[in-house]
Amino acid sequence: MTLDEVMDRWKDAVDAHDPERVAAGFTEDAIFQGLKPYGVGRAGIAAYYDSQPLGLKAAYRILETRRLADDLVLGYLSVDFTFADRPAIGVHLSVLVKDDLIAHYQVSRLPG
Questions:
Q1: pLDDT value, residue 36
Q2: What's the confidence (pLDDT) of residue 110?
Q3: What is the pLDDT of residue 111?
Q4: Three-class HEC string of 44-105
Q5: What is the CATH number of the domain that holds 21?
Q6: Which residues 6+ apart lie within 8 Å of 71 measured at CB?
């Protein structure tokens, strides 16, 4: 599976507001840092996405990738999260994908 396929799976689940399906795209012990305090594991990831408003959508663009090993890819992305009732939020996202699952997810808010 490519980084595009992993991130498409993540995006589809985020857009569908399906927190359990989002979490299923992560390793059991994934380190997750969204715009709230970090968590570890699928339960925390599902809770994070469950707390997001209905209508949240993600649009991403891969900026850089590095294959660190046969089963390990580092990705650096630009992501715009849009909402039904407020302005969009632009972030940079770093992911570490192991065996087609996200093992590390780190968001950085863009200035401005």
A1: 86
A2: 73
A3: 74
A4: HHHHHHHCCCCCCEEEEEEEEEEEEECCEEEEEEEEEEECCCCCCEEEEEEEEEECCEEEEE
A5: 3.10.450.50
A6: 98, 99
The amino acid at 49: Y
Predicted pLDDT at 107: 97
Q: Which residues of 47-58 are buried (b: 16+ CB within 10 A; e: fewer)?
A: ebbeebeeeeeb
Query: How far apart, in Å, are the Cα atoms of 8 and each of 25, 36, 86?
Result: 10, 23, 24
pTM of the shown model: 0.94
| CA contacts within 13 A on the Cβ side of 59 | 7
- Domain of residue 36 covers 3-109
Number of domains within the chain: 1
Q: Kindly give the parts of the chain with pLDDT less than 50.
A: none
